[in-house]
């Protein structure tokens, strides 16, 4: 059924006079330079257009490059290759008029609410009276009448984001960008703000011609968007791009709605088909992460994996990922890493959006804790290269310790410095659970787990005698 | 979080002033060794330039202003000293801001500039007194202004580095989304500076200013009057007043002078620093309103007065509105400037390379000259220098240990008693700001009477100057130990020994290290000052690098001066890198109490 609501579009089909794109990206890419001379590709060549009259949602797991994409489209960040056009002029030269609503609000805490909203107008040289009047009007529109003299820190999260909206809208942007605007808010507040935003949009209270929203919340995307683009990662690429033709207001419980959500889950968990062709235009080596030998460890805890498997066993060993997320009240960003981890360890298989447990997985889920650790250890050594390497390195060294630096250097070849650090953290987490090794945080060294350390010392003492 | 570069979290009320200062002393080195070597060459060259300029001075007489020690001269002298400090401080603030700004936004020079910070702040400024003053006197011959400039330049050098580091690291830690907001809303550099960068850096700058000015007083008192061979360099001011008073044994004048110094310090604290701290609270980058904060009656007074509280902002908007209107037509305000515009990737012009090559040549030439200067040292001079280095090293560390030994028990006792702590904390802050150099003559007079030597005297001076930093931090550390941990310790009937080893010492460790790092910097400066002292027509001295520096100054032996300065800097830098940084890391990982 979901296919009925899905029509595949590509950017070039829409070039008709009334829907000429406001922003058009042509094969944009992004890499980040590494200290090791390598470059990490974050976005592979991508075409994308923002068309007047629609709310476009960019959906994807964290780290897939959504924020990077938003920044390139808004002119905040230069693509490493490719071009972004604003009304068919290169964006670097055009006087563009866009706003961004940030996840962290990015308000200036030392300015009052009014001063925060006035600041962009000040930059545009609007005179003080007009500035004040426009800002106060905008505050009224977002429901913050009477709060103009307050400081952001005196407001609740929801009210702060209202200030964020007021600041964004006061400049009457042609495109309103939002980077996970609701994810720092609690569920009810987020729901409330979302519906008010939709109201402003559909009543044409704001002069904005297009909205681009980045989110990792599937339901949010389906609730708001006229068009959804799903991003895959490593490097970021478009997995699907389709129109949503449900009527507003949308009902989360309706069948077309849940079908659509289910469809997106399927897209997100479907295995990737082929790797993108390696970059051939420049001399420097560009690493494509799918051709690298370290797999990217999902940042999930072993306890989470165990919990997921136990739940699956209760459900007869097979269930829809969407329903699992629903049962657990998880967002995809919480659930996907756990699913990924279970998959890497060979405890789980994913087919068409369904998760089914493997024999090893059910063995793991059914065992008591000590046995679980043992199974986990075997699975980890078999399937996770980084853990295997750490363990082997410790065993070979005479003092049984290896500095963290050593592995960071190797990971840096492939991941950003930040991600390398996170990879090590996850490895430490898994290694400690599996009692493969321990980590001395003060010396930043991997060591043998305590039990084995004592054994080793005892053996040394015997040798000495 | 108040200070972006804070390594440990402090209870709200007890934001120690010296924290960020200590942090910058133990920077994690992120630059290649080449840069360190290059900088060493630059410093050698600079030294040679100074000395070379200074050589001319022997031809030009400088008028010597007689210094009075009558009470009636005191107000004018205080005024002079305050003006000197003020000018030096304002200069350092301006310089620090431009330095931090340049370093933070120019990837090509960033590593060099940060490494410069790291090394220059390790050099005790007092050891540079003679060459700097001589060079300045040579530039402004036959006039007091030369000495004046030399002294101001020296205080400036002592004050500027921690301010610059604070500003730089604030800029680097501005949250990315706020920077992006300023770009997407097309702020001009001007608006970004006043609405984002300055407010964000304000708190760090205020706290570091307090440290800087305290250091400035310490140095000023020491260098308003000094001799070189048979030549006297003196400036009318509090430092020379105290010196003259002690030379002539005028105890009344001494006491009056010291009282004046203390009064000035207390007044600065009450009239400037406290209002500034209280005011800068509004720049705290904290998303929640905190319960207690520093209060200042003066600030409240200003805020209550309608005229005083609205006048500045009205004046200010009169100035800035036209600026904003003009700037809105600039490119910055019409086109969104990408945040990752890679300045490093732009090709450098040939002119840049030409200039760099020229500068490099000059530096290499100067450095080689300085090396030639060094090679004039004889074997026995080198041995004496090394002996002096060991003696000073021991003395600095003995004074640190003594300070730690008494401040730990006292500080912990105070910290465990919040009421007491609230009273003592501000007092300790003020004590830490009183320049110990002012007390030194009195101390020596006393020591001479009871037959003690300068060996004890210099340790006493170091203690006087540095123990407050440690006390202050230990109190903060003790207060940060959660009371439930303390209750648990008494519930499980820990012995006294167990309480100290498992709870108290680990709990205060990060704070203790912070205090010791700062104190050791101060102690080195004190050692340059205190190992050689002329009082009346007597010369007191004790073996040490400071003594070598002073003797070399008196005799105009620049090779020794240079070698001694290099030795001190090497010792301070390597202590920072080898010992303090490791302890810091330990403090940040193992002994960090979870917030
Ligand atoms: N400045 C940077 N240097 C190196 N890697 C970066 C940088 N910024 C982002 N990345 C990497 O790019 C990837 C995508 O990041 P981002 O766009 O923030 O993802 P998302 O918003 O989808 O969570 C991540 O793997 C991240 O580590
Ligand atoms: Mg993001």
UniProtKB/TrEMBL annotation, chain B:
Q: Where in the cell is it found?
A: Cell membrane
Question: Which coarse location class describes where this protein primarily resides?
Answer: membrane
Give UniProt keywords alphabetically. Membrane, Transmembrane, Transmembrane helix, Transport
Q: Its domain of life?
A: Bacteria
Checking InterPro entries in the record gives: MetI-like (IPR000515), MetI-like_sf (IPR035906)
What range(s) does the ABC transmembrane type-1 domain occupy? 78-272, 389-579
Tell me what topology the record assigns in the membrane.
Multi-pass membrane protein
Q: Name one Pfam family in it.
A: BPD_transp_1
* Transmembrane segment boundaries: 33-57, 77-99, 111-139, 145-168, 200-222, 251-273, 351-374, 394-416, 428-448, 454-479, 500-524, 560-580
The text of the family note is: Belongs to the binding-protein-dependent transport system permease family.
Instruction: Indicate what this protein is called per its UniProt record.
Output: ABC transporter permease
Record organism:
Acidicapsa dinghuensis
């Amino acid at each position: 059924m979901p296919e009925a609501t899905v029509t595949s579009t590509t950017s070039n089909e829409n070039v008709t006079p009334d829907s000429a794109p406001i922003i058009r990206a042509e094969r944009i890419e992004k890499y980040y330079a590494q200290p090791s001379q390598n470059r990490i590709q974050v976005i592979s060549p991508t075409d994308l257009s923002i068309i007047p009259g629609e709310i476009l949602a960019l959906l994807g797991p964290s780290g897939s490059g959504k924020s990077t994409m938003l920044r390139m489209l808004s002119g905040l960040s230069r693509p490493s290759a490719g071009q972004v056009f604003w009304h068919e002029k290169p964006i670097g030269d055009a006087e563009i008029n866009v706003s961004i609503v940030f996840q962290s609000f990015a308000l200036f805490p030392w300015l009052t609410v009014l001063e925060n909203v006035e600041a962009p107008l000040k930059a545009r040289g609007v005179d003080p009276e007009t500035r004040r009047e426009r800002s106060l009007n905008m505050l009224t529109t977002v429901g913050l009448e009477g709060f103009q003299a307050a400081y952001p820190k005196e407001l609740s999260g929801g009210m702060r984001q209202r200030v964020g909206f007021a600041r964004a809208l006061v400049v009457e942007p042609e495109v309103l960008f939002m980077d996970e605007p609701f994810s720092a808010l609690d569920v009810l507040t987020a729901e409330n703000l979302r519906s008010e935003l939709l109201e402003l949009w559909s009543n044409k209270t704001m002069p904005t011609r297009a909205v681009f929203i980045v989110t990792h919340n599937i339901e949010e995307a389906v609730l708001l968007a006229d068009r959804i683009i799903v991003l895959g990662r490593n490097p970021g690429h478009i997995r699907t791009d389709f129109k949503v033709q449900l009527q507003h207001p949308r009902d989360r419980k309706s069948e077309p709605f849940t079908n659509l959500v289910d469809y997106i889950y399927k897209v997100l968990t479907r295995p990737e088909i082929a790797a993108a062709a390696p970059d051939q235009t420049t001399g420097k080596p560009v690493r494509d992460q799918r051709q690298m030998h370290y797999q990217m460890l999902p940042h999930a805890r072993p306890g989470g994996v165990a919990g997921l498997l136990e739940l699956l066993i209760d459900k007869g060993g097979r269930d829809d990922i969407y329903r699992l997320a629903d049962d657990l009240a998880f967002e995809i960003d919480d659930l996907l890493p756990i699913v990924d981890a279970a998959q890497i360890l060979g405890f789980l298989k994913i087919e068409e959006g369904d998760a089914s447990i493997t024999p090893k997985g059910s063995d793991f889920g059914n065992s008591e804790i000590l046995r679980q650790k043992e199974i986990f250890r075997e699975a980890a050594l078999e399937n996770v290269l980084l853990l295997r390497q750490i363990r082997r390195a410790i065993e070979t060294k005479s003092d049984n310790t290896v500095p963290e630096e050593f592995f960071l250097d190797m990971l840096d070849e492939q991941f950003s410095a930040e991600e390398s650090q996170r990879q090590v953290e996850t490895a430490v987490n898994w290694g400690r659970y599996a009692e493969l090794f321990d980590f001395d945080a003060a010396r930043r060294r991997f060591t043998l787990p305590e039990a084995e350390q004592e054994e080793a010392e005892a053996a040394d003492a015997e040798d000495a005698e | 979080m108040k200070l972006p570069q804070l390594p440990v979290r402090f209870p709200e009320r007890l934001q120690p002033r010296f924290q960020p200062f200590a942090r910058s002393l133990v920077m994690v080195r992120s630059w290649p060794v080449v840069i360190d070597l290059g900088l060493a060459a630059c410093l050698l060259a600079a030294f040679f330039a100074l000395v070379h300029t200074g050589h001319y001075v022997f031809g030009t007489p400088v008028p010597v202003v007689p210094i009075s020690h009558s009470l009636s001269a005191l107000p004018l002298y205080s005024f002079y000293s305050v003006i000197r400090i003020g000018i030096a401080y304002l200069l350092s603030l301006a310089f620090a801001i431009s330095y931090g700004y340049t370093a933070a936004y120019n990837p090509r020079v960033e590593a060099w500039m940060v490494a410069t910070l790291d090394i220059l702040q390790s050099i005790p400024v007092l050891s540079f007194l003679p060459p700097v003053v001589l060079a300045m006197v040579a530039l402004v011959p036959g006039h007091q202004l030369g000495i004046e400039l030399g002294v101001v330049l020296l205080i400036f050098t002592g004050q500027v580095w921690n301010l610059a580091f604070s500003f730089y690291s604030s800029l680097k830690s501005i949250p990315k989304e706020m920077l992006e907001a300023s770009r997407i809303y097309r702020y001009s550099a001007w608006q970004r500076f006043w609405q984002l960068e300055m407010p964000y850096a304000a708190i760090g700058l205020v706290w570091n200013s307090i440290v800087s000015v305290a250091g400035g007083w310490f140095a000023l008192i020491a260098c308003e009057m000094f001799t070189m061979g048979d030549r006297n360099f003196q400036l009318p001011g509090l430092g020379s007043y105290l010196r003259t008073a002690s030379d002539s044994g005028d105890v009344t004048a001494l006491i009056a002078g010291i009282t004046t110094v203390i009064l000035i310090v207390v007044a600065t604290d009450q009239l400037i620093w406290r209002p500034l701290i209280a005011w800068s609270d509004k720049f705290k980058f904290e998303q929640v309103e905190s319960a207690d904060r520093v209060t200042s009656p003066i600030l409240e007074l200003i805020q209550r007065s309608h005229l005083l509280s609205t006048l500045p902002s009205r004046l200010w908007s009169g100035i800035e509105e036209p600026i904003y209107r003009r700037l809105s037509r600039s490119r910055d305000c019409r086109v969104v400037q990408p945040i990752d515009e890679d300045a490093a990737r732009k090709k450098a012009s040939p002119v840049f390379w030409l200039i760099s090559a020229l500068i490099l040549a000059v530096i290499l030439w100067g450095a080689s000259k300085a090396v030639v200067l060094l090679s004039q040292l004889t074997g026995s001079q080198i041995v004496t220098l090394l002996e002096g280095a060991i003696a000073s090293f021991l003395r600095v560390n003995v004074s640190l240990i003594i300070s730690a030994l008494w401040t730990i028990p006292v500080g912990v006792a105070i910290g465990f008693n919040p009421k007491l702590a609230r009273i003592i904390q501000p007092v300790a802050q003020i004590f830490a700001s009183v320049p110990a150099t002012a007390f030194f003559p009195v101390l020596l007079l006393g020591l001479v009477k009871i037959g003690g030597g300068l060996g004890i005297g210099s340790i006493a001076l170091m203690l006087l100057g540095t123990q407050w930093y440690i006390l202050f931090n230990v109190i903060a550390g003790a207060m940060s130990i959660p009371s439930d941990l303390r209750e648990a310790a008494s519930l499980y009937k820990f012995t006294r020994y167990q309480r100290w080893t498992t709870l108290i010492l680990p709990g205060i460790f990060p704070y203790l290290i912070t205090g010791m790092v700062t104190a050791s910097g101060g102690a080195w400066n004190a050692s340059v000052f205190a190992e050689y002292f002329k009082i009346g027509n007597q010369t007191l001295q004790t073996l040490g690098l400071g003594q070598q520096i002073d003797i070399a100054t008196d005799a105009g032996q620049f090779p020794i001066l240079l070698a001694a300065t290099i030795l001190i800097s090497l010792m301070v830098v390597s202590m920072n890198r080898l010992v303090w940084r490791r302890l810091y890391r330990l403090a940040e990982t193992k002994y960090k109490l979870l917030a």
